[in-house]
Amino acid sequence: MITGSLVALVTPMHPDGSIHWEQLDALVDFHLENGTHGIVAVGTTGESATLTPEEHLKVIEQIIKRTAGKIPVIAGTGGNSTHEAIDLTSEAAKLGADACLLVVPYYNKPTQEGLYRHFKAIAEAVPDVSQILYNVPGRTACDMLNETVVRLADIPNIVGIKDATGNIPRGTELIRAVEGRLAVYSGDDATAAELMLAGGKGNVSVTANVAPKLMSELCEAAIGGHREEAERLNAILEPLNRKLFLEANPIPVKWALQRMDRIETGIRLPLTPLSDKFHGEVEEALKTAGVL
After folding, report:
1. DSSP 3-state assignment of 77?
2. Which of 91, 131, 164, 195 is 20 to 30 Å from 7 at the Cα level?
3. Could you list the active site residues?
4. How far is CA 193 from the centre of its chain?
5. CATH code at position 35
C-alpha cells in the first residue's frame, strides 16, 4: 500500500508556458532528498487541464525515470470522457506508473450510477495497474457519495480514494466503511492531519511542494497515531495550508516555488500569476514554516 506524503507536483514551465524539463528533474530530486513518500504526476496541481496528451504522458515518463523506483509515482489519468481516461491510464501503466489517480468526471455531472460505471470501465480496461479514485466536488461540480465508493471497493484494482471534501465526519465514515479494502487519502491539506489520525493512509498534498520534509514528518506522525507530534507539525504548516489557496491552485504554490528559486514564472492560461496583493501573505507563510 502507498502511504504517507504524496506531493501533487507542479509542472514547472518557462515564462512562455513551455515545460521546463530540467527544473522538473530538480523538483523530483528535491522531494527524494526531503523524505516525500510518493509523487502524483500531472494532477490538478500539475496543470493537467492545459497539458496536451503528449505532454501529459511525457511528464509522467520523465518523473518515473527520475525517481528510478525510489518512491512510487501515481499518474493523474482521469477525465470526463471514459474513453480518454482509459487511454491515458493504459499509457501510464505501460510507462511504469505505480498507480493512477482518476478524478471524478467534471462538467458533465454524471449520476452516481454513471460514476460507478465510469470507474468500473476503466478498472476493467486496465486491470494491471492500481487505481485511486479522486473526489473533489469543489472542482468537478459532481460529488461521488460514500455509497458509490463502497460499491467500487469491490473491484480488485481500485485500491484507494483521494477524498478532497475536507469533511472529517464524512471521511471518517468512509474509512470505516471500506476498511481492509480501500485506502483513504486526504486531498485537503487543511484537514489532512485529522483524517490521517482517524485512519487515513496519507495526504495528496499541495503544501508538500514547498515544505516536503515537514509534510512527510506530519504524515508519519499522524498515520502512526502520534497526535501530539502531528498537531505540533500541523500548527507550523497551517498558514501555508491556508495561504496556498488564496487563489486557485496551483497559482499560489507556483509563485511560492518561484520565490524559493526552484522554478521560473511559467503558468498556462487561463491561469495567471499570483496577484500582487497576495505576495506578502504567501511569503510570510513560507517564512513561518522555515522554508524561506
Report:
1. coil
2. 91
3. 134, 162
4. 15
5. 3.20.20.70
pTM score, two decimals?
0.97
Domain coverage including residue 194: 4-226
Inside any domain, residue 254: no
Please report, in range form, the residues annotated as the binding site for pyruvate: 45, 204
Residue 92: count of CB within 10 angstroms of its CB: 28
CB atoms within 10 A of CB 108: 11
Express each pLDDT in 136-148 by its tens digit.
999 999 999 999 9
Helices (H), 78-191: 82-95, 112-125, 137-140, 146-152, 168-177
User: Could you tell me how far CA 286 lies from the centroid of its own chain?
Assistant: 20
Question: Binding site, residues?
Answer: 45, 204
Name the amino acid, one letter, at 36: T
Q: pLDDT tens-digit profile of 26-85? A: 999 999 999 999 999 999 999 999 999 999 999 999 999 999 999 999 999 999 999 999
Give tens-digit pLDDT for 214-260. 999 999 999 999 999 999 999 999 999 999 999 999 999 999 999 99
